[in-house]
Specification:
Elements (H helix, E strand, L loop, with lengths): L2 E9 L5 H16 L3 E19 L2 E14 L2 H13 L3 E10 L8 H4 L6 H16 L26
Antiparallel strand pairs: 1-3, 1-4, 2-3
């Protein structure tokens, strides 16, 4: 079963019971149909980026929460229908994170590590200098961290 993330914006109520019941019913909907709920996160009340209208009411503030779950496509479709009909839900979005849990990578694993810029510059300068002019002193043109241009005396070609 594919792994999904549900981001749900619910109408803000003074009591937490409305949101707790919605989260519980959503999780039970997935589990009753053979799915697995992996994670629930409550982000708290936040101001909406713009005023939103849903089920005949205007909303300026919403409670945000997310749920990571494994479910079949049929379960996903029935969950969409349930969330669409629920008056407590302002907006929701479901994203497929991967087909298997092994496909999911963390942000650090996907990040390409860049080499240290000083070392990279030194390596590039060393290669350019080796190709351009031979060193009359026989030593390296570039030190480990930076270019030692002051110690070089490169003779001018005639």
């Amino acid at each position: 079963m594919p792994l999904y993330q549900l981001l749900c914006l619910t109408a803000h109520y003074a009591e937490y019971n409305f949101i707790r019941d919605l989260v519980r019913s959503t999780a039970m909907h997935v589990m009753d149909r053979g799915g697995v709920v992996r994670d629930l996160d409550y982000w708290g009340p936040r101001a909406l980026p713009q005023r939103m209208r849903r089920h005949g009411a205007w909303h300026n503030v919403s409670d945000y929460w997310t749920m990571h779950f494994d479910a079949s496509p049929a379960t996903l479709k029935s969950l969409n229908t349930t969330l669409r009909a629920d008056p407590r839900v302002v907006r929701w979005s479901m994203i497929k994170l991967g087909h298997r849990p092994e496909d999911i990578q963390t942000f650090e694993e996907m990040t390409i590590k860049r080499p240290d810029s000083d070392k990279l510059k030194a390596q590039l300068a060393n290669e350019v200098l080796k190709k351009a002019v031979p060193n009359p002193l026989g030593g390296p043109y570039v030190e480990e961290i930076g270019i030692a241009m002051s110690s070089l005396s490169i003779p001018k070609s005639p």
